[in-house]
Amino acid sequence: MSHQAITKLIVEEQTRQAGKLVTGVELEQYIDKLLTQAELVSHCEGQYCLGFIAFYCNRPSTGCAYISLFIVAPACRERGIAGVLLSHVDVTAKTRGFKKIELEVNRNNSRAIHWYDKAGFTVVAEHENAYRMSRPVT
Q1: Parallel, antiparallel, or unpaired for β 122-126 and 130-136?
Q2: Which residue in 28, 34, 42, 102 has a CA-CA distance of 20 to 30 Å to 88?
Q3: Rounded distance, CA 39 to CA 67, Å?
Q4: What interhelical angle do 27-37 and 3-16 show, nearest 10?
Q5: d(CA 50, CA 74)
Q6: 10, 16, 17, 21 alpha-carbon torsion, rounded to 10°
Q7: 9 φ, ψ (degrees, to nearest 5)
Q8: What is the pLDDT of residues 68-97, one digit of tens each?
């Protein structure tokens, strides 16, 4: 897994989403935090990162794993990459005794919301610009 390739994918997606992917913090700082503190699973071909998921399984008392960022390159969507990446989070969370996985998604990102719904996530809270979604570990 190349941190440079993941960084490139994040920057491209931030541009595609007109700066709305990561808000409230400098993008560079956010990327640095993910690369140094989150657990990362990526799907790469050669030097290109086609998708990745950044997550945390660091609060066992909550029983909840948390997905911080989940991106699949637009040209690579509908190829099953997202499902494979999510299955890695499931395995890790289950192995460590976590019972559920949560994430936040921009409420205007209907494509992602639809995918998460099909993957078993349900909305458990609403915020000004986002939904918190949750599902049991499978």
Answers
A1: antiparallel
A2: 28
A3: 9
A4: 140
A5: 9
A6: 0
A7: -65, -40
A8: 999 999 999 999 999 999 999 999 999 999
The pTM of this model reads 0.94
* Residue keyed to tokens 């140094």: 36
Asked if residue 123 has pLDDT above 70, the reply is: yes
How is residue 31 written in tokens?
A: 């990327």
Pairing of strands 100-106, 64-72: parallel
Is residue 116 within 8 Å of residue 133, measured between CB atoms? yes
Residue with tokens 């030097």: 47
Class assignment of domain 3-136? alpha beta
Q: Return the structure tokens found at 23.
A: 């808000």
- Residue 66 corresponds to which tokens in the numbers above? 């948390």
